[in-house]
Amino acid sequence: MDDQYFMKQALAEARKAFDAGEVPIGAVVVLNGRIIGRGYNQVEMLNDCTAHAEMIALTAAFNTLSSKYLMDATLYVTVEPCLMCAGALYWSKIGRIVYAAPDDKNSYRRATGATSPFHPKTKLEEGPGKEESLTLMKSFFSSRRK
Predict the structure, then answer these.
(1) What is the pLDDT of residues 11-63, one digit of tens each?
(2) Which top EC class is named for this enzyme in its record (predicted)?
(3) Contact call for residues 61 and 73 (beta carbons, < 8 A)
(4) Residue 82 is assigned to a ligand binding site
(5) Apex 36 CA angle, 33 and 42, nearest 5
(6) Global model pTM greater than 0.85
(7) Residues 3-137, CATH architecture
(8) Which of 97, 96, 93, 98 is nearest to 119 (CA)?
(9) Is 49 annotated as a binding residue?
(10) What is the DSSP string of 35-61?
(11) Does 54 qualify as catalytic in the annotation?
(12) How far apart are the C-alpha atoms of 144 and 135, rounded to whole Å?
């Protein structure tokens, strides 16, 4: 199992969001080759602006480990995290973040510029799944504009 495999799992979560009428973003948290947290956007369903995929996956991972830190874990997320999720990821001390598609409009970079809001030891990487993630996002938003 590698980045490709785990990003496919995050994309499966994104498709759940799409099918539920939510912005199609999905995330999984992986530790030692095992998924310990999953999430997809549930903002509309829960009427909660903080119910982003990353937040839900982090909460599931914290509960799985009975710990608030994820130093040896990796988050796979279909779209680059927003500033709120970046803050949560900072406090989790997550070891690695792999995202499929950049988000120039809503990512943490819009507020922070070149400054990284992540923990100094966190590695941030663009990974596989970019085209599928962008296709899901474009399809979702184009269906809303009709």
Answers:
(1) 999 999 999 999 999 999 999 999 999 999 999 999 999 999 999 999 999 99
(2) hydrolase
(3) yes
(4) yes
(5) 130
(6) yes
(7) 3-Layer(aba) Sandwich (3.40)
(8) 93
(9) no
(10) EEEEEE--HHHHT-TT--HHHHHHHHH
(11) yes
(12) 14
